[in-house]
Amino acid sequence: MMQDQELEFARSAIRSYLQTRPASADTAEGIHQFWIRWPDATPPLSLVLKVLEGMRDAGEVESVNVGGCTIWRAAR
How far is CA 34 from each of CA 10, 24, 37, 44, 57, rounded to the nearest angstrom? Predict the structure, then answer.
């Protein structure tokens, strides 16, 4: 299914980004736009949020509230 491929692509891209830049943190919008080099049409932001929430549930990333914005980063 196409969405499964997009989910795995996004998950892999986020892991790779954090592996090379472990101190990085950004909003879901920033991650969607700058951390992931989408090969085709850019999927909706909701797809990246779904990936981030799954990664949070798995203990890979965490979200923190900074100035009313949710910021995502590698779990500490």
Answer: 12, 12, 7, 14, 23
